[in-house]
Design goal:
The complex is a heterodimer of chains A (581) and B (263). Chain A is an all-alpha fold and 581 residues long. In chain A, 77% of the residues lie in helices and 1% in strands. Chain A has helices at 23-31, 36-61, 70-81, 91-102, 111-128, 143-152, 157-179, 182-265, 269-281, 283-331, 335-360, 374-401, 405-419, 423-437, 446-472, 475-483, 488-518, 530-539, 548-576; strands at residues 154-155, 363-364. The chains are: A mainly alpha (581), B alpha/beta (263). Bound molecules: adenosine-5'-triphosphate and magnesium ion. Chain B: Belongs to the ABC transporter superfamily.
């Protein structure tokens, strides 16, 4: 054995690493060609990537944006790039993107969903990004009430009354927690608010509307009479313009057919481009014609609305007298006669109500749910389900952990039932069955019903994700919160939930993304979400046979939203990371 | 373990035991299911007392002090803290908890909040102290436990001893009348144990009513005015530290002391 003791006499200086470990060469060697297996995999991957791009890029580059039908697209692509070229027909997106975004929402009211979307972004921004000025938060609580009002329109009283329900819940919470028990306050307050929304909002709204209607009837009558007189003249003028322009367009179409054959005959590239731009210029008169026709449509609608309203107004006194008589007769009627009288009374009541609603409305023109569609519908349903499912999921998760046996049983039952049933089933329930379960007299809008179902579905999943987060928290956190004298809700809000939610961020965001994509299932119950619309577009003769461009566009839009959510979740995780792991 | 907790002489000028009862426990029993953890506990603690509770593992020490602020519920007997009886009335429980500070073996700091936020949270939300005032109080106590410079860090960035001192400061910020310690030094390295014990000694010197579950016999000798020995859920022996260590009466106590003091 030699001597084991050793003492370093000279310290080593720092040396640069060998050339093979640094720079591009080093990087390539380490990441792509570190051994023969890796090298083969790299080469195979490169070939694969090349194949994919070689297939897609020419298709993307040889696209047509200006055509009016699939045939025209093909003709344009063939003309521009030769018969063998394959090209995308993005013209369908150009022509239909408004429909894909707004569905059949009245185009003169597009400003409303746009404003609503902007408002939503402004309301969400300070919640999502804490670096933004805290003052912006003041706007956020109003968004949930203003946005639906903008989208569906109707009287201003409804959102105000809905807010009043929250105020009521707040008062109940304060009173209960100071006089009875803080633990009871929150559920009871929620119940009071729900009862208010179900049973009080609509009657109060109707009463206020009726009051205003009674005051306005003379003015509105006069106004409608004016319209009924003036509008037919305007429409006749439009008719004349349209007829004149129609001839121009007819001539242009004939020219176009000639041009298309010229295009096929054209030999040189320059000649081809010239013919193509000539075809393009023909669009001008055609677009002008479409605009005029739309204007006429709007005027016609206005006229028919004015006529209906005027007729209703004129019949109002008579209907009211009929109502009195019917009521008097009803008082001493029996049997079959009674049923008949009741039915007649209902019809008369309906007529009166529809006039009163129209005349007494202070607010926006209502837009029916069946006109909603496209991404607007997906985003509306998705956003509601996402924002509502988080608090409901938290409540369910807490309920599932609670010591109160019945509450726990209800929560477990709810979660397991909803998770055990496919969303499609719930949507069918929403579209067909849900009205049977609601108190009589409340008729729920189909979109609202779908929103409730999607929200419940998402909440059940959310509850389980959050329960995972709760389970990961050490018991000591609860004990420390208790020992400091924080009550249950304060401990949850300040100590438990911030940590549990932080742990659950990846799961929560996955659920969000899943819910947002699941909104496309509503097309199965006949709502026109982007997929539902794409079927309608494909059924149109002009676009029959188009697949990739339409679904590609829809997929891209969904990807943008979902990818943003996923990036946001990563940002949030990084931001909330405290201390060392 | 028998060596002293501190080299310096302890200032006993403010360490006075008053006539007023801080905690009164009478005939208290507790079961975990069928398991009888605490058996007929009778204990009166006066304001200003410094009590050390010791005993073998599983003897119910933690359970006893956790009953005092109702982290555990007792099934029979009576516990009166600061004149308020502990019943299932949540209001009383929250009131007592805000008067009784507790320090845990594993610190239990809130990892998502900074040290300062850890200390101001309860004063702001429970005592409704304005934020600014709460922060001033918090800085005062953080200085007292000698880590004001860490105020803006997160618990995960501190050493164990520092974390435990923050936990003590966090409790003190509620200005409690009584402090409970459940093995505050058991999860710490020897060097850090000293930091924490120093803090506890200073607290004792200011006259705080303290109940400590600990195996630091040096601390018990120097600071405690009474040592309680528990075994199998019962109080087996209690006495002033000198007679307790030098002249234990019960066989169990003798056995326990011989094991822990390593004779
Ligand atoms: N939640 C519980 N459920 C059932 N039994 C428990 C529970 N908590 C503690 N026990 C049991 O009660 C007895 C007393 O526990 P306790 O934690 O009070 O002991 P301890 O004296 O603090 O012990 P240690 O020195 O190990 O901390 C032990 O036997 C333990 O197994
Ligand atoms: Mg213990």
């Amino acid at each position: 054995m030699s001597n084991l003791s050793y003492v370093r006499t000279e310290m080593l200086g720092e040396q640069s690493p060998p050339g093979t470990a640094i720079g591009i060469v080093g990087w390539l060697r380490a990441n792509l060609f570190s051994n023969w297996l890796n090298t083969i995999l790299t080469l195979v991957s490169l070939v694969f990537i090349y194949q994919v791009f070689a297939a897609i890029l020419p298709w993307l580059i040889h696209s047509s944006w200006t055509a009016n039908s699939l045939q025209e697209c093909r003709a344009q692509v063939d003309a521009a790039y030769g018969m063998a070229a394959e090209g995308g027909c993005w013209a369908v997106i150009r022509e239909r993107y408004l429909q894909l975004v707004f569905g059949f929402y009245p185009s003169e009211l597009y400003w409303r969903p746009i404003l609503a979307f902007g408002l939503t972004l402004v309301a969400l921004a300070p919640i999502l990004f804490t670096a933004l000025p805290r003052k912006m938060l003041w706007l956020s609580p109003f968004a949930p009430f203003v946005v639906p009002w903008l989208l569906w329109g109707g009287t201003v009283w409804v959102p105000l009354l809905v807010v009043a329900g929250l105020g009521l819940a707040y008062v109940v919470t304060r009173v209960l927690s100071s006089h009875v028990s803080g633990l009871l306050a929150v559920p009871v307050a929620a119940l009071v608010a729900i009862l208010w929304w179900l049973y009080a909002v609509m009657p109060v709204n109707d009463a206020v509307t009726a009051m205003i209607a009674n005051q306005r009837i003379p003015d509105v009558s006069a106004d409608m009479r004016d319209k009924v007189e003036i509008l037919p003249g305007e429409i006749a003028a439009l008719d004349a313009q349209i007829a004149a322009l129609g001839q121009t367009v007819g001539r242009a179409e004939a020219e176009k057919d000639a041009l298309v054959s010229a295009l096929e005959a054209a030999e040189t590239e320059a000649a081809r481009t010239a013919v193509l731009s000539a075809i393009h210029e023909l669009r001008g008169p055609r677009d002008a014609l479409a605009a005029l026709e739309k204007q006429r449509l709007v005027r016609n609608e206005e006229l028919s609305r004015a006529r209906t309203l005027l007729a209703g107004l004129e019949a109002l006194p008579e209907n009211r007298t009929t109502r009195e008589t019917l009521l008097a007769q009803l008082a001493n009627a029996t049997g079959a006669a009674r049923g008949d009288l009741e039915a007649r009374l209902a019809t008369v009541d309906n007529r009166i109500a529809s006039v009163v609603k129209e005349v007494g409305r202070v607010g926006l023109i209502p837009v029916e749910s069946r006109r909603f569609g496209g991404f607007m519908l997906s985003i509306t349903i998705g956003l509601v389900a996402i924002t509502a499912s988080l608090p409901i999921g938290v409540m369910l998760a807490l309920g599932r952990q609670s010591d109160l046996l019945i509450l726990r049983a209800i929560c477990v039952g709810f979660i397991e039932f909803i998770r055990g049933v496919p969303l499609i089933t719930l949507l069918f329930v929403a579209s067909v069955l849900l009205n049977y379960f609601l108190p009589p007299g409340t008729s729920f809008d189909i979109i609202l019903r779908v929103m409730i179902m999607v929200t419940l579905f998402a909440s059940a999943y959310m509850a389980e994700v959050i329960r995972g987060g709760l389970a990961a928290l050490p018991k000591g956190q609860y004990e420390a919160a208790d020992a400091l004298g924080l009550d249950y809700w304060k401990a949850q809000r300040l100590i438990i939930m911030p940590q549990a939610l932080k742990i659950s961020i990846p799961g929560i965001v996955s659920t969000f993304i899943g819910v947002f994509k699941d909104t496309t299932l509503v097309s199965i119950i006949g709502l026109l979400d982007p997929l539902g619309l794409s079927n309608a577009i494909r059924a149109n003769t002009a676009w029959n046979g188009i697949v990739w461009e339409l679904y590609g566009f829809i997929a891209l839009m969904f990807f943008v939203f979902c990818f943003s959510m996923s990036r946001y979740s990563m940002y949030l995780e990084r931001k909330l990371r405290t201390g060392h792991r | 373990m028998s060596e002293l907790a501190t080299e310096r002489a302890i200032d006993r000028s403010k360490m006075s035991v008053s006539e007023n009862v801080a905690i009164q426990i009478t005939n208290m029993n507790k079961w975990y299911g069928a398991f009888h953890v605490l058996r007929d506990i009778n204990l009166t603690i006066y304001e200003g007392e410094r009590i050390v509770v010791c005993g073998p593992s599983g003897s119910g020490k933690s359970t006893l002090i956790r009953c005092i602020n109702r982290l555990e519920e007792h099934q029979a007997g009576q516990i009166v803290v600061d004149g308020i009886e502990l019943t299932s009335d949540l209001k009383n429980i929250d009131k007592i908890r805000s008067e009784v500070g507790m320090v845990f073996q594993h610190f239990n700091l809130f990892p998502h909040l900074t040290i300062l936020e850890n200390c101001t949270l309860a004063p702001i939300w429970v005592r409704k102290v304005p934020r600014k005032e709460a922060e001033e109080t918090a800085m005062h106590f953080l200085e007292k436990v000698k880590i004001p410079e860490q105020a803006l860090k997160y618990p995960g960035q501190l050493s164990g001893g520092q974390q435990q001192r923050v936990a003590i400061a966090r409790s003190l910020c509620m200005k409690p009348k009584i402090m409970l310690f459940d093995e505050p030094t058991s999860a710490l390295d020897p060097e850090m144990i000293k930091e924490v014990l120093d803090t506890m000694i200073e607290l004792a010197e200011e006259g705080m009513t303290m109940i400590c579950v600990t195996h630091e016999m040096g601390f018990a000798r120097q600071v405690a005015n009474r040592v309680i020995f528990m075994d199998q859920g019962q109080i087996v022996e209690q006495n002033e530290p000198e007679p307790f260590f030098n002249n234990p009466q019960s066989e169990r106590t003798k056995l326990f002391l011989s094991q822990i003091l390593g004779h």
